[in-house]
Amino acid sequence: MEWCRPQADVSQVSSVLIYRLCFHPLAKHPGPLLARLSACANWYHAKKGDRHEWIQSLHAQYGSAVRFTPNSISFNTVSAMDQIFRSRQAGAIKSDWYECIRGSAGGFESTLTARQKARHAVKRRLLSHAFSERAMKDYEPRICKLVSTWLDCLEAEAKGRDIMDLGEWCNYLIFDILGDLAFGDSFGLMTTASERFVTGLIPKTTGGWYSLGYHPLTKSLRYLIFNTRLGQWIGGQSFRDNVRFRDFCIGKLNRRKAQSPGKDETPGKTDMFEHLLNGRDPETGQGYPMGDLACESVLLMVAGSQSTSGGLAATLFYLAHHPEKLSKLRAEIRTTFTTESAIRYDGGSALMTLPYLRACIDESLRLSPPTPGHLPREIVGNNGMDIDGDWFPATTNVGVAPYAIHRNALYFPEPLEFRPERWLGERDKETRDDLQLAFVPFSAGATGCIGRQLAMMELCLAVARLLWRFDLQVALPSRNGPVEYRIRDCFVGDGDGPFLRLIRSPGSGF
Questions:
Q1: Would you tell me how many other CB atoms lie within 10 Å of the CB of residue 446?
Q2: What's the rounded Cα separation, in Å, for the pair 439 and 130?
């Protein structure tokens, strides 16, 4: 009866496909036929790096709720964002996909990978010490000093080059800032080339476990890659890049630990490591286990570097491609500050309230968000969850992709246009409120990016000081129509360039 087995297998597969298409709880929701039958399309686009664009195209075709795997729904509405991410009563937690990040970090738990809400809350309270208002005041002059070094390096580099890859230099700046703030010492990427390789490791590393988490056989592959010696062969170059990046971060952490216990030797200088090492949860009294501290350090480097450097590169790209917006912003900066060194981000500084500067940064983050893709949440509990008027059962994966909601014309008319003026009150209050709620470059709610304030400080200081000293010019004029700083979706966004000319401004004294 061996001949019966192939028929039985075909019958079983057919039954699964018919169930997913016709009888599954999500069967009524629209989406591509292949996506409703299999998770292969989702994995393919994650592997390719255009998953955010694919999901956005599905929303454009099918509407505000799209079924893009047999058990996954993507939304692009404010109401869904509120119900899934912002509501304290949300019946959804981080999905099993986050186990790939945890596995890549050696199995230890961090704020990013803690799936249960109570565990995440403990981690976040500990991490909050490193992002407190007091910490921000300590970080600001150090960021200013490094931005000045960055501009000096750019000026020296520009003398020998007609066109510069400012994307690379954005990476060098943000990495050096993170080195100083996290471990008490800049990595020196702006001034020396020996460790610049690390900037290219992040998208390679995150892209590997990002696509692995969406593989149809993810649980089996995850076990083999992270728990057996087969990992280096199955994971390939991505596995080796992950190990190399993790070793780099842990090496910096160990070097910092070897310094004076819990204190940087520079008076008045505190780094994130000290906050994390000495911090205690006010509710439980617990601190960071050393394994989790190492994991947190690695993921701080991922989230804190690529997201901010990508946002900075995108802002410079859009300004250079829209000279009239660039001129307007440079005029705002020039009429507000008398010298470059006066551009600060401390209490009462005018930089914190420059409306057009913030509008340009926000509009750039809208078009090219640091984390562009759908971050999955798994519905838990016996009662399921209501989202946008529909009920979804437990185990359903749901989410909102920033790239998709940022292109929803309901909130952002002419969504492909770079129009900073949309942030300056050109519409009624109710519509402005929706615009703000739909703007989620750093996610939202209890699991939103804890470093958002630091990122905005870095972006405002870098953009304002650079535009005080330089004008920007695109290397190749753009074609007619909207231009986009295209990014690859590797969990964090990864873009090329921008490739620009830096033109020294006359009378740009320090």
A1: 14
A2: 25
- Single-letter amino acid code for the residue at 248: F
Beta carbons of 145 and 190 less than 8 angstroms apart: no
Residues facing residue 441 across a β-bridge: 443
Phi, psi of 504, rounded to the nearest 5 degrees: -60, 130
Asked if residues 116 and 93 have their Cβ atoms less than 8 Å apart, the reply is yes
d(CA 380, CA 471) in angstroms, rounded, equals 52
Q: Would you state the pLDDT for residue 349? A: 80
How would you list the strands of the sheet with 72-75, edge to edge?
65-69, 72-75, 397-400, 377-379, 92-94
Strand, coil or helix: 470: strand
Residue-level pLDDT at 2: 46
Crossing angle, helix 355-367 and helix 452-469, to 10 degrees?
110
Token duo for residue 77: 């509405």
Residue 449 in marked binding region: yes
How do residues 9-30 score in pLDDT, each as one tens digit? 677 888 999 999 999 999 999 9
Confidence of residue 1 (pLDDT cuts 50, 70, 90): very low
> How far apart are alpha carbons 131 and 185 in whole angstroms?
18
Mind listing the pLDDT tens digit for each residue in 31-42? 999 999 999 999
Q: In 3D, which of 24, 171, 117 has the Cα closest to residue 446?
A: 117
User: What is the Cα–Cα distance from 406 to 368, expressed in whole angstroms?
Assistant: 9
